[in-house]
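Pasting two entries for a bug report.
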Amino acid sequence: MISKEPSILHSSADKRVIPSLSILKGLLGSTAEVAKFLRVSGWYLKTDLDKTLVPNMNFLISCGIPTEKIIWLMYYFPRFLLQKPENMEKFVARADQLGANRSSKMFVHSVRAVSSMNNDTWEHKLKAFRDLGFSEEGIVRLFRVEPLLFCISEEKIRKLERFLLATGKYDLSCIVKNPTSLTRSIEKRYEPRFQVLEILERKNLIKNWPSFSALYKMTDNKFFEKFVGPHYNEVGEAYMKKCVLARKKEVDSVARLD
């Protein structure tokens, strides 16, 4: 932990580190869990948790969000809980304004989605959804039930839009009817599958492409079993090459982040 966050050594043990450790142990329940958490988020010890984490947790609990859900957020989205308390209140108010239901288990994700964007980014995101064909009512409904879709970058939304139309087989209504299709990887799921289907159609090995709903929901094993395995000599190499390339890009991307 110190090797990742050496500046912790400059923090006051009595005024910052020990109080933070005490708060974290109270929340996480054991020294082992605190150590596990700090291996990933050691910078929590550099922050005055009494002025950020504690008031934010208390406020979110008052909004009806269970404590265990907030602790889950600590592990997966730790910076979210270190917002200024006044900003957290604004994010909740914005989520309320957009129609998020506080009694829904998705409410906390609605708040986090709002917190991840400034106003300009939010407006560009809304325009991207409108351009796909979502109505204003549809956008509000989507935010209520699938708020995490609003964390998807505008760039990815536009890229899938172009990619889908380029096939000549699907139109934008496919995304409107299947909005969670936006969560699937273009490089790892859509590109390899579209290429296989194009080759099979060109060689008259299939008459029709599957529905978009079936295509994006199909597991990799099922797709291989149905479209690749029976025609491996024709499409196997192309399919595997695309999958390997997508995996390499993913590894390279993670390496750059490290």
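Entry 2 (this is the one that rendered wrong in the viewer):
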Amino acid sequence: PGSGGAVSVCSGSDSGNVRVTVSGDSRPSQKLFLLHQVGMLPHASTLDQPIQVVMPFQVDVGRFAKASLEWHFETGIANREVAFRLCDRISRKRRKLIKVILLQDLSGLTFSFAYSQYRLGSVQGKLSKISSFVYPQMLAQVVIVNAPSFINSIMRVASNFLSQKVMDKFRVCTSAEQACAAANLPYDLFPSFLGGGYDWDAAWIPEKLRNSGRQQAQERRISRHSRETEPIFGGGSSDVGS
């Protein structure tokens, strides 16, 4: 995707996953299995950073809830491996260290669900520790959008499992403009279903979500055009004299 190189995505034998083939480096191509609600934007940030979009509660919250801890762990490793391959390839090409941006959409996350999934904290803690050794310096930012009202409670719980170094990389954004700035991504390249202007027609994104995002983006463009073309009147009086 963009400067990220050769990454192909196709349906896997497991209907809950997609198969991702990563190539373009010195290692042989390898197929990895990802959660189907995870995707890499087909373009990088203005700093050449690959952007990984995750939205588990928008796509298949039932599967997410019922999956075993082992499944969550293996999926987490696979997601990190794909991001690492992209970062490694771009870093070698640009001759500078490139890190990945994680764009996390929390739409659909309820308090009851978050409370019931407290068990996943141990998995995230384990993944964080492994990543610090296997995938060092890979994560640039975690940009959170559509956060629920209890996001501060979630962050407090997360701090029990994640290092302070990782926690410092979280950015909770309350608008698309904030998210664009945090992700180093122009508005026109930010996904429309997250409040931007880019119509991302990826197969893993539900059609209903793609269509609503496309419509909302069109409405925002019309509204912005109307404001830009609205006549500006001066403050002086139009009377010539008395």
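Dev reply: Rendering is fixed now. As a check, the viewer should reflect this: The mean pLDDT is 76.
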